[in-house]
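Let us work through a complete example step by step.
Step 1: write down the sequence.
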Amino acid sequence: MKQREQWTSKIGFILAAAGSAIGLGAIWKFPYMAGTNGGSVFVLLFIICTLLIGLPILLAEFVIGRRGQADAVTSLKKLSTGRNWAWVGWMGLASSFIILSFYSVVGGWILSYLARAFTFNLGELDYGELFDSIIANPVEVLLAQALFMGLTIWIVQSGIRGGIERASRWIMPLLFLSFIVLAIRSLTLEGAMEGVRFLFVPDWSYFNGTTFLVALGQAFFSLSVGVTAMMTYASYLSKEEKLGQSAFNVSILNIGISILAGLVIFPAVFALGHSPAAGPGLIFVILPAIFNEIPFGAVFLIIFFLLMLFATITSSIAMLEIVVSTGIRNKHDRRRRASWVFGGLIFLVGIPSALSFGLLSDVNVFGNTIFDFADLLTSRIAMPIGALAVSLFAGFILTKEDTAEELRMNSALHSLWKVIVRYFAPLAIVVIFFSWIFGM
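Step 2: predict the structure and record it as tokens.
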């Protein structure tokens, strides 16, 4: 078996891992989840869930991945010493497959808007009608989804160093710069402070089990934990890198970008008299209308959708890499073909999600559109279960010697991490999960 590829540097790994985390979870999903779940209380719970539950589990994935030095399925099988834990890797692979199948649909929407923005075809329009017409147009959504998947496949087929790391080194700095420019513009609008208060002044009536579960699911979704993405990325990491520092950096970057996204969107939403609870269409319906009302709005709209595209691609390549890594098992000569085969299959599986707002809009799965059901199945069910399994595996299956060798932290911090992944994180996941199940 050929030697496994490795990242060329620590910064390359952190940017790629942060890129996986800082995707639509931070820019598309976080704002509308915050908008429909009370704003500041959701933000507070999201930060708590990220640091107390998401970060330790992220670190657990890093430990398992680097210790195993293989795809998630192989690593879990190799490290479980006779016990059958490979199912966690297979479930993570299946979750990534499903997530990317509907994630690529949203990526296609972004490309549709970006094409219109570049041609200045987003002028005086009813943006609600425009959004509805785009997502209901079967030809446009499928072509855009195919183009987005093609871009994702093109990056992943080039490997870790030549594809994923190189793309992340360019995309992530551009993403941060775009966010800063847009946040400054949004905060300078008259009445913007209402949006800031919405994000940072708590409304405690939203403090309940449902909001907690949604915040926990958002923490998992935005950190890419529970689907073995971080496990896969860490398997390409050298033994010299400090896992704890890398995990903390990724978590802080994720929180920071999520809040920045809120500072881009909500001050503008409130300044121009729109509702923060617009749901998934917030960035596709409300934001174009907002940018249309400010000087040089067309330019800022192009910047925003380029930012969206950058963030979406960095996450999509991580999800496709999980599938490809498992398929090729370190046989690098198979990467190009595997990328196109698996990427094509994901596109085909995503077709029902793409059509769920048009031709298949009458098809419901437990009261949800196909698109919404795929989201619910992964973010509220599969990802928490996967995160629970990863936490228990790192806490009870990996030996203290194994984890100590990988983490290289002082004994007090190592013991605290063990307690969290053994008891606190699993208990929190179970309690919140069942509070949502019985509250449905």
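Step 3: interpret the result. The two ends are 49 Å apart (CA to CA).
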